[in-house]
Design brief:
Number of helices: 6
Radius of gyration: 27 Å
Number of strands: 8
Strand content: 15-25%
Shape: elongated
Structural class: alpha/beta
Strand order of the largest sheet: 1-5-6-8-7
Oligomer: single chain
Length: 240
């Protein structure tokens, strides 16, 4: 049995993973679910959800919404904006390296003077100041360098998503979906991006959370233990 969303789900209430589960009804029919690990340990109230219902909803919505030109345009524009922000951070690195070069030159000149016997309280104090500033600038430069990435053109960003939509379901989910936060009445999908994130970005708790789609969805499905259809309503969100 293939669970399309295995390793992608996290409970929105307790933060634990939502795992694949299989059960057997009284008539011997197998039932497949996604169930919060916290509920399994009896410390979370998140309800299990049928595998086929969740997978169909997630897959259909991803394909439908990312196929809409206006949605794709909003994603591409946001990622281009993030790359422009990274470019501005690169200019900050340039200023840091420029100052570091000046500090290095001043430090070399001062060391040369000390080697020639020019030593005083002033030179010792200045030497300490320059060494401290040099270390600080080296630290800042490393931070800024870690934020840099090769900028991707708009066409490459767009192709990343359009090509993924042509993949078979399991590969599509693996390529596009970073993580899904699951509530009883809300589903938040966080998408992967072809651009390198800055160190400040990570999972949904740390990402910028650019919301590009939201909708309240009503779902009806047949529960074998009930005569009438079971109906639920969820808020569906997609984010970068």
């Amino acid at each position: 049995m293939t669970y399309l969303l295995r390793h992608k789900l996290r409970c929105g209430y307790c933060g634990q993973s939502v795992n694949a589960e299989c059960g057997t009804s009284q008539n011997g029919e197998k039932k497949y679910y996604y169930k919060c690990l916290g509920r399994k340990h009896r410390n979370c109230h998140k309800k299990p959800i049928r595998k086929e219902i969740l997978e169909e909803l997630v897959l259909d919505k991803i394909i439908a919404e990312l196929s809409r030109p206006q949605i794709m345009d909003s994603i591409v524009q946001e990622l281009m904006r993030r790359q422009e922000q990274q470019a501005r951070e690169a200019s900050a690195l340039h200023m840091i390296l420029k100052e570091k070069k000046q500090v290095d030159t001043a430090l070399n000149n001062l060391v040369a003077a000390i080697e020639q016997g020019i030593i005083s309280n002033t030179t010792n104090r200045r030497l300490h100041e320059l060494e401290t500033r040099q270390a600080e600038l080296e630290r800042q430069a490393l931070i800024e360098k870690s934020k840099l990435a090769v900028q991707l053109p708009e066409a490459i960003i767009r192709k990343f998503y359009t090509k993924a939509l042509e993949m078979e379901p399991r590969l599509l989910i693996d390529c596009l979906v970073k993580e899904i936060l699951l509530y009883d009445d809300k589903i938040e999908i966080y998408f992967n991006s072809p651009i390198k994130p800055s160190p400040a970005e990570g999972g949904p708790d740390e990402s910028q959370g650019f919301l590009f789609y939201t909708e309240d969805i009503r779902i009806a499905f047949k529960d074998p233990h009930r005569s009438e259809l079971t109906r639920i309503e969820v808020q569906f969100e997609m984010k970068l």
